[in-house]
Amino acid sequence: MPALGIRLTGLSRAELTELVAGWGEKPYRVRQLWSWIYVRLASEWDAMSDLSKDFRRRLAESCAPMRPLPVTHQVAADGTEKWLLQLQDGQTIETVFIPEEGRGTLCVSSQAGCSLNCSFCHTGAQGFSRNLTAAEIVEQVLFCRQDLAQRDRRLTNIVLMGMGEPLYNYDAVAKAVHILMDDAGVAIGTRKITLSTAGVVPRLHAVGRELGVNLAISLHAVRDDLRDQLVPLNRKYNLAALRQALLDYPLKGSRRITWEYVLLSGVNDTPDDAREMARYLRGIPSKVNLIPFNPWPGCPYEPAPAERMLRFQEILHQAGYVTVIRDSRGADIAAACGQLKGMLPGARSRVHAPADV
Ligand code: SAH
Q: Is the CB of 233 under 6 A from ligand 1?
């Protein structure tokens, strides 16, 4: 099998149709192949038993393997699982599975590393390597779904909330989302996919218009001076610009914007911050996730005390917003929010300039 070749999992159905036609195969072969890849989760060409031998040989000769390489797999006390996955150029990324009552959520990475440098996030501290391709995003889902199925675990939801800023890799993310939503394949619907962004304002509309998935915004502060420090992207797209984009956002039906807010002790956790946040959200159909801060070695912050979090929640509740204090899942294996890092032990991080939008 060639180390490099066509990445089938990065092709839309139309592109796959064109490729297969170019090989002189009948159109119905596309349906069969799509089903092998996305429904039956076959990762070996030889397993695709109803394809002709010639077609299978052609696939083996021309196409790249359809799975990342698992380097490590850890299971936390609460059942959260984390994989360190190696891509074909040796880069490594992390993918996290969060089992819950009645559903299983996969937290998928969109970049190797991250260029945003949010001061409380460990992924940011390790620098940015590169964007993932659509195939590399899709294959995280195929790999984990296949692996989980062997243990009777179901992957029902996807959050683009792992390493990276998905809206700085919009084209690949959009393509991957369309492939994952395809009814004849993985078939995970728009309501079961959430894209989380630090607020790349010029790209927000496209998420609603072109993808229709749920949108989560990492807010973390409602004063520009503070948000400039916590989420440096705010210097480019400030709170007023972000708010205006969300007032104009094409929300479908009864859906709401999800706001994520990490509570940092003595930094952004006062009752005044909560009241200011309620004012900020006014007019935007919203629900709020308060996230306990997950510390990492050398980080300059501490988690807000429980009574501060409860008070913060109560103020938002009283202002009419559904507000949930999220469980911190998988913290004992560093699988929780902001703890992901793709580096193998001993690897050096590289810092690149952020992609411009
Ligand atoms: N770049 C995207 C997606 C990745 S971050 C974004 O900013 O939304 C996913 C979520 O984890 C964000 O809300 C982020 O702010 C949060 N997070 C990052 N570091 C964290 C930490 N140390 N503790 C708790 N949450 C953290």
A: no
- In whole angstroms, what is the distance from residue 197 CA to residue 259 CA? 10
Summarize the confidence of residues 6-32 as an average pLDDT.
97
Range in 158-162, 193-197, 325-329 with the lowest mean pLDDT: 325-329
What angle do the packed helices 13-22 and 28-38 form, to 10 degrees? 130
Q: Which CATH class is domain 69-333?
A: alpha beta
> What residues does CATH 1.10.150.530 cover in the chain?
8-62
Q: Where are the alpha helices (DSSP H) in the chain?
A: 13-22, 28-38, 53-62, 122-125, 134-149, 170-181, 201-206, 224-230, 239-247, 271-281, 306-318
Residue position matching structure tokens 């196409």: 63
Query: Does residue 196's CB lie within 6 angstroms of at least one atom of ligand 1?
Result: yes
Residue of 81, 94, 165, 260 marked active site: 94
Please give the distance, rounded to the nearest whole angstrom, from the Cα atom of residue 136 to the centre of ligand 1: 21
In sequence order, what are the beta bridge partners of 290?
A: 261, 325
pLDDT tens, 280-295? Answer: 999 999 999 999 999 9
94 is catalytic: yes
8-62: CATH, from 1.10.260.40, 3.90.79.10, 1.10.150.530, 2.60.40.1590: 1.10.150.530
Q: Where, residue-wise, is CATH 3.20.20.70 in the chain?
A: 69-333
- Find, among 270, 248, 261, 332, the residue nearest to 292 by Cα: 261
pLDDT in tens, 60-78: 999 999 999 999 999 999 9
Which tokens belong to 2?
Answer: 């060639």
Confidence class for position 345, pLDDT limits 50, 70, 90: very low
Q: What pTM was estimated for this model as a whole?
A: 0.93
